[in-house]
Write a structure and sequence with these properties.
Pfam families: 6PGD, NAD_binding_2. This is 6-phosphogluconate dehydrogenase, decarboxylating. By secondary structure, the chain is α/β, with parallel strands linked by helices. It folds into 2 domains: about 160 residues, Rossmann fold; about 110 residues, N-(1-d-carboxylethyl)-l-norvaline Dehydrogenase, domain 2 (Orthogonal Bundle). The protein contains 13 helices and 7 strands. A 7-stranded mixed beta sheet has the order 2-1-3-4-5-6-7, sandwiched between helices. The longest helix is centred in the middle third of the chain and has 29 residues.
């Protein structure tokens, strides 16, 4: 099957390679001349036979919106656009409506797998009309891991990105739990070899997971994580998950706390903690640490 890919970064480029290795004909466009197969979007579309399919892997927000609208001017009735980036699910209805006026289908695809996807496969959560999804199944089958798991048609337009948002919210909570366990083990006077403890958990325990495997890998490379700063960004999906929990009145205690922990990691000297220290000093005479 033929496919166009717009955006050949860490994931888009590896997806192109995995698909080609599976026998599909893939043309990619990227603004980086060292990565691209074609000069521009019109050439990308011209290389594909109708009905065409173009997979968009560019940053969420305006870059995705601009790309979808540009493709809408170039594609024809019966073609399909797949947004595989980390778009907010509320953007999908806008994109689908814009393309529908031109007879072009739209699929939103949440993609998980990161830099390991080329080797291990990508977990795919897609939303859209069944007919459009069915047309793209050879591509989805080539990208997903082997076996029965790793792909879901989660529902209509928006469902794929919604499922990926919740997936990433869960990921925040899982990483926070491992991180807190790591810090407690490091602080304990009882445990002599923290990396070995994490390694021992990789088999036979209820906390084993791919994230645990990656934590073990990180500790093999840097046992005390001395090369890293304790600063964690967020891609936005954790925030959207918490916003949805508020909208639907669903308590997400662990996920919300893990998001706030990332915010705390960016503070060199928290004003909130200064206020707590001042209050403890005022009501109890507790010692305060002077500013350096």
């Amino acid at each position: 099957m033929q496919l166009g890919i717009v955006g050949l970064g860490k994931m888009g480029g590896n997806m192109r390679t995995r698909l080609r290795e599976a026998g599909h004909e893939v043309f990619g466009f990227d603004r980086d001349a060292s990565l691209t197969d074609v000069a521009d979007l019109p050439e990308l579309v011209s290389r594909l036979d109708a009905p065409r399919a173009v997979w968009v892997m560019v940053p969420a927000g305006d870059p995705t919106r601009d790309t979808v609208h540009a493709l809408g001017e170039l594609l024809s009735e019966g073609d399909v656009v797949i947004d595989g980036g980390n778009s907010r699910f509320t953007d999908d209805a806008e994109h689908a409506e814009h393309l529908a006026g031109k007879g072009v289908g739209y699929i939103d695809a949440g993609v998980s797998g990161g830099v390991w996807g080329r080797e291990n496969g990508y977990a795919l959560m897609v939303g859209g009309a069944k007919g459009d999804v069915d047309k793209l199944m050879p591509i989805f089958d080539a990208l997903k891991p082997p076996g029965e798991y790793g792909f879901v048609h989660a529902g209509g337009v928006g469902a794929g990105h919604y499922a990926k948002m919740v997936h990433n919210g869960i990921e925040y909570g899982l990483m926070q739990a491992y991180a807190e366990g790591y810090e407690l083990l490091r602080a304990s006077e009882y445990v002599d070899d923290v990396p070995a403890v994490f390694k021992s958990w990789r088999e036979g325990t209820v906390v084993r997971s791919w994230l645990l495997d990656l934590m073990d890998r990180a500790l093999d490379e840097d046992p005390n994580l001395d090369k890293l700063a304790g600063y964690a960004t967020d891609s936005g999906e954790g925030r959207w998950t918490v916003e949805e929990s508020i909208r639907l009145a669903v308590p997400l205690n662990a996920i919300t706390a893990s998001l706030y922990a990332r915010f705390a990691s960016r503070q060199d000297d928290s004003d909130a903690m200064k206020a707590i220290a001042a209050l403890r000093n005022q009501f109890g005479g507790h010692a305060v640490k002077p500013e350096k």
